[in-house]
Amino acid sequence: MAAERGRFDRGRGEQARERRREQIRERREQARVQAREHGLAADAAERSGERAGKSSGTGSSALTRSRVRLDQPRAPRRSLLPEYDPEAFGRLSERVARFLGTGRFIVWMTLVIIVWVLWNIFAPDGLRFDPYPFIFLTLMLSLQASYAAPLILLAQNRQDDRDRVTHEQDRKQNERSIADTEYLTREIAALRMGLGEVATRDWIRSEFQDLIKEMDERRLFPAERDEGDR
């Protein structure tokens, strides 16, 4: 009877568990359906708001703004300015700055200027494209300088940012090194204080030597010692 009752109780427990699982599944399905309905309703409201905004003007635009969904990413805004990668542009500026700071650039620029001037002086009149006083050459040099200066400044700013990060890391490393040094110093001082109370090899050796001397003296003069004791 007890075994049958135990089996009956187990069967009832399993049935109760199955019912609970089914209830949980039904609740999850209902929650999913409600979420879908809510999402569809929100989309419909947004669409209706947009249509009403087109027809009524600014009054409905406030409603559409207040009904922006937070569970979706914002659509990218269109900009009239050109888009670019700041990191790639920064690397390009550093390359240009490195080239402008080399002797190769100075040599090439000097050769170009010399050829430019000689061509516009000694070439035939029909082939001269920049006669004296070389206004076009001056314009090109000023244009090159106007572009080179911002690129150099941008490269310097990037280098300053890297130096700042490096200095911060060095400062933190120095702080950790100082903390480790102070800890080791305290540990060494504690070891010294602890070793001051420990018997060293030299001290034990000196004590043994004193004991040996005392034993030798007692062996050499035993009678005098006995009389003195009496």
Describe the structure.
With 230 residues, this protein is an all-alpha fold. The protein folds into 2 domains: 58 residues; 110 residues. It is 82% helix and 0% strand. The chain is built from 7 helices and no strands. Helix 3 packs across helix 5. The longest helix has 62 residues. The chain starts with a helix and ends with a helix. About 4% of the residues have low confidence. This is Membrane protein. It comes from Streptomyces avidinii. Keywords: Membrane, Transmembrane, Transmembrane helix.
Can you lay out the helices and strands and say which pair or pack?
Layout: H1 2-56, H2 58-66, H3 86-100, H4 103-122, H5 135-196, H6 201-220, H7 222-229
Helix pairs in contact: 1-2, 3-5
The ordered H/E elements are HHHHHHH
How many H/I helices? 7
**Over all CA atoms, what is the radius of gyration?**
47 Å
Distance between the first and last residues' Cα: 103 Å
Largest sheet, in brief, is: none
- Report the count of strand segments: 0
Low-confidence stretches: 56-64
Helix content: over 70%
Domain module tally: 2
